[in-house]
Protein backbone atom coordinates (compact mmCIF):
# COMPACT_ATOMS: atom_id res chain seq x y z
CA UNK A 1 0.00 0.00 0.00
CA UNK A 2 1.41 3.36 -0.98
CA UNK A 3 1.46 6.22 1.50
CA UNK A 4 1.71 9.98 1.19
CA UNK A 5 4.26 12.28 2.74
CA UNK A 6 2.75 15.73 2.87
CA UNK A 7 6.21 17.34 3.13
CA UNK A 8 7.60 15.55 0.07
CA UNK A 9 6.89 14.75 -3.53
CA UNK A 10 3.90 12.72 -4.66
CA UNK A 11 4.28 10.48 -7.71
CA UNK A 12 1.63 10.54 -10.42
CA UNK A 13 0.75 8.87 -13.72
CA UNK A 14 -1.46 10.46 -16.37
CA UNK A 15 -3.49 8.16 -18.62
CA UNK A 16 -5.31 9.77 -21.57
CA UNK A 17 -5.45 8.93 -25.27
CA UNK A 18 -5.38 12.64 -26.18
CA UNK A 19 -1.78 14.00 -26.09
CA UNK A 20 -3.02 17.61 -25.86
CA UNK A 21 -5.00 16.78 -22.71
CA UNK A 22 -1.97 15.05 -21.19
CA UNK A 23 0.23 18.04 -21.96
CA UNK A 24 -2.31 20.49 -20.55
CA UNK A 25 -2.74 18.51 -17.32
CA UNK A 26 1.01 18.07 -16.92
CA UNK A 27 1.51 21.83 -17.30
CA UNK A 28 -1.19 22.60 -14.72
CA UNK A 29 0.36 20.15 -12.27
CA UNK A 30 3.80 21.69 -12.75
CA UNK A 31 2.47 25.21 -12.20
CA UNK A 32 -0.08 24.69 -9.44
CA UNK A 33 0.77 21.37 -7.76
CA UNK A 34 4.59 21.48 -7.51
CA UNK A 35 4.63 18.61 -5.02
CA UNK A 36 3.34 16.24 -7.73
CA UNK A 37 5.99 14.47 -9.81
CA UNK A 38 4.78 12.85 -13.02
CA UNK A 39 6.56 9.51 -13.44
CA UNK A 40 4.76 8.41 -16.60
CA UNK A 41 2.26 9.53 -19.24
CA UNK A 42 0.34 6.81 -21.08
CA UNK A 43 -1.67 7.39 -24.26
CA UNK A 44 -3.60 4.11 -24.10
CA UNK A 45 -5.17 1.87 -21.47
CA UNK A 46 -3.00 -0.98 -22.73
CA UNK A 47 0.29 0.84 -22.13
CA UNK A 48 -1.07 2.11 -18.79
CA UNK A 49 -1.75 -1.44 -17.67
CA UNK A 50 1.93 -2.34 -18.10
CA UNK A 51 3.15 0.88 -16.50
CA UNK A 52 0.90 0.68 -13.45
CA UNK A 53 1.75 -2.94 -12.79
CA UNK A 54 5.48 -2.22 -13.04
CA UNK A 55 5.61 1.05 -11.13
CA UNK A 56 2.36 2.13 -9.42
CA UNK A 57 2.14 5.84 -8.55
CA UNK A 58 0.55 7.48 -5.55
CA UNK A 59 -2.03 9.27 -7.72
CA UNK A 60 -3.47 8.10 -11.04
CA UNK A 61 -5.14 10.68 -13.31
CA UNK A 62 -7.33 8.43 -15.43
CA UNK A 63 -9.31 9.34 -18.54
CA UNK A 64 -12.57 7.41 -18.90
CA UNK A 65 -13.18 7.25 -22.65
CA UNK A 66 -10.33 5.51 -24.48
CA UNK A 67 -10.22 3.13 -27.47
CA UNK A 68 -9.97 -0.66 -27.09
CA UNK A 69 -10.88 -0.56 -23.39
CA UNK A 70 -11.87 2.37 -21.21
CA UNK A 71 -10.73 3.61 -17.81
CA UNK A 72 -13.24 1.48 -15.90
CA UNK A 73 -12.15 -1.64 -17.76
CA UNK A 74 -8.52 -0.76 -17.01
CA UNK A 75 -9.32 -0.75 -13.29
CA UNK A 76 -10.98 -4.15 -13.58
CA UNK A 77 -7.93 -5.56 -15.35
CA UNK A 78 -5.55 -4.11 -12.74
CA UNK A 79 -7.28 -5.87 -9.87
CA UNK A 80 -5.65 -4.58 -6.67
CA UNK A 81 -5.48 -0.78 -6.58
CA UNK A 82 -2.83 0.74 -4.31
CA UNK A 83 -3.04 4.39 -5.30
CA UNK A 84 -5.44 7.33 -5.20
CA UNK A 85 -7.69 7.81 -8.22
CA UNK A 86 -8.71 11.05 -9.92
CA UNK A 87 -10.79 10.54 -13.06
CA UNK A 88 -10.57 13.05 -15.90
CA UNK A 89 -13.44 13.23 -18.36
CA UNK A 90 -15.43 15.34 -20.75
CA UNK A 91 -19.00 15.72 -19.53
CA UNK A 92 -20.61 12.31 -19.36
CA UNK A 93 -23.61 12.36 -17.02
CA UNK A 94 -23.81 8.59 -16.76
CA UNK A 95 -20.14 8.10 -15.85
CA UNK A 96 -19.97 11.10 -13.53
CA UNK A 97 -23.04 9.95 -11.64
CA UNK A 98 -21.43 6.56 -11.03
CA UNK A 99 -18.19 8.21 -9.87
CA UNK A 100 -20.04 10.53 -7.49
CA UNK A 101 -22.09 7.62 -6.17
CA UNK A 102 -18.91 5.75 -5.22
CA UNK A 103 -17.30 8.81 -3.57
CA UNK A 104 -14.32 8.89 -5.93
CA UNK A 105 -12.77 12.07 -7.35
CA UNK A 106 -13.11 13.42 -10.89
CA UNK A 107 -12.16 16.47 -12.93
CA UNK A 108 -14.07 17.77 -15.95
CA UNK A 109 -12.13 18.70 -19.08
CA UNK A 110 -10.86 21.29 -19.65
CA UNK A 111 -9.40 20.92 -16.17
CA UNK A 112 -9.80 23.94 -13.91
CA UNK A 113 -6.65 24.75 -11.93
CA UNK A 114 -8.46 25.37 -8.64
CA UNK A 115 -10.45 22.14 -8.93
CA UNK A 116 -7.20 20.33 -9.72
CA UNK A 117 -5.47 21.76 -6.66
CA UNK A 118 -8.43 20.82 -4.47
CA UNK A 119 -8.59 17.26 -5.83
CA UNK A 120 -4.84 16.74 -5.32
CA UNK A 121 -5.06 18.23 -1.84
CA UNK A 122 -7.81 15.77 -0.90
CA UNK A 123 -5.87 12.86 -2.38
CA UNK A 124 -2.76 13.76 -0.40
CA UNK A 125 -4.73 14.15 2.85
CA UNK A 126 -6.47 10.79 2.59
CA UNK A 127 -4.89 8.25 4.88
CA UNK A 128 -6.46 5.33 2.99
CA UNK A 129 -6.20 4.22 -0.60
CA UNK A 130 -9.43 3.75 -2.56
CA UNK A 131 -11.02 0.81 -0.82
CA UNK A 132 -12.00 -2.29 -2.79
CA UNK A 133 -15.59 -1.73 -1.69
CA UNK A 134 -15.54 1.77 -3.17
CA UNK A 135 -14.33 0.47 -6.53
CA UNK A 136 -16.84 -2.36 -6.36
CA UNK A 137 -19.65 0.20 -5.96
CA UNK A 138 -18.35 2.13 -8.97
CA UNK A 139 -17.98 -0.86 -11.27
CA UNK A 140 -21.37 -2.32 -10.28
CA UNK A 141 -22.99 1.04 -10.97
CA UNK A 142 -21.32 1.20 -14.40
CA UNK A 143 -22.43 -2.33 -15.32
CA UNK A 144 -25.96 -1.96 -13.93
CA UNK A 145 -26.96 1.73 -13.87
CA UNK A 146 -30.56 0.89 -12.96
CA UNK A 147 -29.58 -1.21 -9.95
CA UNK A 148 -31.46 -0.26 -6.78
CA UNK A 149 -28.98 0.80 -4.09
CA UNK A 150 -30.25 2.19 -0.80
CA UNK A 151 -26.87 3.29 0.51
CA UNK A 152 -24.68 5.99 -0.98
CA UNK A 153 -20.96 6.50 -0.46
CA UNK A 154 -20.29 9.89 1.14
CA UNK A 155 -16.72 11.08 0.48
CA UNK A 156 -14.83 12.49 3.47
CA UNK A 157 -11.23 13.64 3.90
CA UNK A 158 -10.50 10.31 5.61
CA UNK A 159 -12.10 8.13 2.92
CA UNK A 160 -15.82 7.54 2.62
CA UNK A 161 -18.83 6.47 4.68
CA UNK A 162 -21.81 4.41 3.54
CA UNK A 163 -25.09 6.09 4.47
CA UNK A 164 -28.73 5.23 3.85
CA UNK A 165 -30.02 7.99 1.59
CA UNK A 166 -33.34 8.03 3.42
CA UNK A 167 -31.56 8.69 6.74
CA UNK A 168 -30.34 12.12 5.55
CA UNK A 169 -32.65 14.87 6.83
CA UNK A 170 -30.94 17.84 5.20
CA UNK A 171 -27.72 19.02 3.58
CA UNK A 172 -26.10 22.38 4.18
CA UNK A 173 -23.49 24.03 1.95
CA UNK A 174 -20.10 25.08 3.31
CA UNK A 175 -17.97 26.15 0.36
CA UNK A 176 -16.43 23.07 -1.25
CA UNK A 177 -17.90 20.92 1.52
CA UNK A 178 -21.41 19.88 2.55
CA UNK A 179 -22.68 19.08 6.04
CA UNK A 180 -25.19 16.22 6.17
CA UNK A 181 -27.55 16.01 9.14
CA UNK A 182 -28.91 12.52 9.78
CA UNK A 183 -32.00 11.18 11.53
CA UNK A 184 -29.93 9.85 14.44
CA UNK A 185 -28.81 13.47 15.13
CA UNK A 186 -25.30 12.81 13.84
CA UNK A 187 -23.52 15.11 11.42
CA UNK A 188 -21.28 14.11 8.53
CA UNK A 189 -19.12 16.45 6.46
CA UNK A 190 -18.74 15.46 2.81
CA UNK A 191 -15.83 16.66 0.68
CA UNK A 192 -18.27 17.58 -2.11
CA UNK A 193 -20.11 20.83 -2.73
CA UNK A 194 -23.89 21.04 -2.48
CA UNK A 195 -24.36 20.87 -6.25
CA UNK A 196 -22.53 17.53 -6.31
CA UNK A 197 -24.64 16.22 -3.43
CA UNK A 198 -27.81 17.36 -5.20
CA UNK A 199 -26.87 15.37 -8.29
CA UNK A 200 -25.80 12.36 -6.21
CA UNK A 201 -29.21 12.33 -4.51
CA UNK A 202 -31.33 13.05 -7.59
CA UNK A 203 -32.80 9.52 -7.57
CA UNK A 204 -34.11 10.09 -4.05
CA UNK A 205 -36.83 12.47 -2.75
CA UNK A 206 -34.57 15.48 -2.16
CA UNK A 207 -35.14 19.06 -3.28
CA UNK A 208 -32.96 22.15 -3.31
CA UNK A 209 -34.89 24.84 -1.42
CA UNK A 210 -32.12 27.44 -1.13
CA UNK A 211 -28.61 28.07 -2.48
CA UNK A 212 -27.37 26.67 0.81
CA UNK A 213 -29.88 23.91 1.56
CA UNK A 214 -31.02 20.57 0.16
CA UNK A 215 -33.71 18.71 2.09
CA UNK A 216 -35.31 15.28 2.23
CA UNK A 217 -38.97 15.90 1.36
CA UNK A 218 -40.04 12.97 3.55
CA UNK A 219 -38.42 14.67 6.56
CA UNK A 220 -40.35 17.95 6.26
CA UNK A 221 -42.68 18.44 9.24
CA UNK A 222 -44.05 21.89 8.45
CA UNK A 223 -43.90 24.71 5.92
CA UNK A 224 -44.37 28.22 7.31
CA UNK A 225 -45.46 30.94 4.87
CA UNK A 226 -43.45 34.03 4.14
CA UNK A 227 -41.70 35.75 1.22
CA UNK A 228 -39.93 32.47 0.72
CA UNK A 229 -41.05 30.92 3.96
CA UNK A 230 -39.20 28.29 5.92
CA UNK A 231 -39.36 24.61 6.73
CA UNK A 232 -39.42 22.88 10.07
CA UNK A 233 -37.67 19.55 9.62
CA UNK A 234 -38.15 16.29 11.54
CA UNK A 235 -35.05 17.06 13.64
CA UNK A 236 -36.65 20.42 14.64
CA UNK A 237 -34.17 22.38 12.52
CA UNK A 238 -35.28 25.46 10.57
CA UNK A 239 -34.44 25.68 6.87
CA UNK A 240 -35.06 28.88 4.93
CA UNK A 241 -36.73 28.61 1.53
CA UNK A 242 -35.64 31.07 -1.17
CA UNK A 243 -38.40 32.96 -2.98
CA UNK A 244 -37.28 31.57 -6.36
CA UNK A 245 -37.57 27.95 -5.17
CA UNK A 246 -40.80 28.28 -3.19
CA UNK A 247 -43.20 27.42 -6.04
CA UNK A 248 -41.40 24.20 -7.01
CA UNK A 249 -41.22 23.09 -3.38
CA UNK A 250 -44.96 23.59 -2.85
CA UNK A 251 -45.77 21.74 -6.07
CA UNK A 252 -43.59 18.82 -4.94
CA UNK A 253 -45.23 18.71 -1.51
CA UNK A 254 -48.78 18.94 -2.88
CA UNK A 255 -48.04 16.32 -5.53
CA UNK A 256 -46.69 13.97 -2.86
CA UNK A 257 -43.06 14.21 -4.07
From TrEMBL:
The modification 4-aspartylphosphate is found at residue 63. Pfam families: LytTR, Response_reg. It comes from the Bacteria. Gene3D superfamilies: 3.40.50.2300, LytTr DNA-binding domain. Keywords: Phosphoprotein. The keyword Protein biosynthesis does not apply. Residues 152-251 form the HTH LytTR-type domain. CDD domains: REC_YesN-like (cd17536). Residues 11-124 form the Response regulatory domain. This is Two-component system LytT family response regulator. It comes from Dyadobacter arcticus. The lineage of its organism: Bacteria, Pseudomonadati, Bacteroidota, Cytophagia, Cytophagales.
Amino acid sequence: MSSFKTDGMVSAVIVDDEPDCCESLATLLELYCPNVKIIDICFSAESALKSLRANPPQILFLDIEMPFFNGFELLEKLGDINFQLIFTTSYNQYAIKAIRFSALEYLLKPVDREELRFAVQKAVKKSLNPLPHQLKILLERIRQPAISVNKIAIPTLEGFKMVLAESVVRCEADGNYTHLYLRDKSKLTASRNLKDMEEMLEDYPFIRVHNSYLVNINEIDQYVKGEGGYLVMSDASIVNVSRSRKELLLKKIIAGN
